[in-house]
Amino acid sequence: MLEPIKEMPTLASAGPNVEMTLEKMPVPEQPEGDDGGGNASGAVAEENSIEYQLNAAKSWGKQSRQQEGGLQINGSPSALAATLRIINDGLEGFYTASLDNSKLTFTRNEAKDLAEMNSKTKAFYVTLNNATNSLIAFTINAYDRNDAQSKNILIGDITNNAFDISDIEAFGSNGYITARAALAHEIHENFLVQVKGMLPYGAHIVSINKVEGPVSGVSFDKERNFKKDIIEAHNTLIVPYNVFKDGNILRRQLTISFRNGQIRKIKDGKQ
Ligand SMILES: [Zn+2]
Predict the structure, then answer these.
(1) What dihedral do alpha carbons 123, 124, 129, 131 form, nearest 10°?
(2) Cα–Cα distance between 186 and 207 in angstroms, integer?
(3) Separation of CA 243 and ligand 1 centre (Å)
(4) What domain count does the chain have?
(5) From ligand 1's centre to the CA of 268, what distance in Å?
(6) Which tens digit of pLDDT belongs to each residue from 194-243?
(7) 196 lies in a domain?
(8) Which domain covers residue 141, as residue numbers?
């Protein structure tokens, strides 16, 4: 079962250095030769060329990787629909996400030029693509407010590989830190813990700074305290963040209020 992985040194050499991932990962190119018609006449003649064989190997590797690895999202139809809605909002039409036997997959929209993808959208896509291309399969359980479990999940619960998509959806799509940023954070955190073997707290901090920040176009001062007991004690979570705009740093914060384990209200304002 592991044979194909051995033959993919380029993927293996992508390495565990998460810090570099966002900066270094280009928007992945589409597998070649996928578009049906086109250069059919040249294709036969080229079959023995090195390039042809490399592409075939690449495409085969991609298929086997998709079978063996990737991200599976489980949940009720409404939880999965909400998850896909946020992902597709985040992809802004450049790709369409779907769940294929629970596995997250993307289809490229050729009508949209990838060169027009802004850095926030790119950070979002790269994070998710990283997860779907994972050599080791991992699973996230999506709950929404209709599930009893969602009361026990304050946005995400890494110990149960779960997120509460109703909490995530409460971040909305306006402002800086949006639902897509919160979702990308949870997905990356699960990737780091389940695939890369990081400890939850470290994975949380990396997800804040390397995913949530870039997807939102903001930065964070220091380690953000997100411990469940603190939220439970106060029912409030303050998330300070910085926006760099016109040469100035705007210091802002989200004030997230919980009630019965659900987000009741999010206030976004100056610090
Ligand atoms: Zn986290």
Answers:
(1) 110
(2) 8
(3) 20
(4) 1
(5) 19
(6) 999 999 999 999 999 999 999 999 999 766 665 666 676 778 888 899 99
(7) yes
(8) 65-218
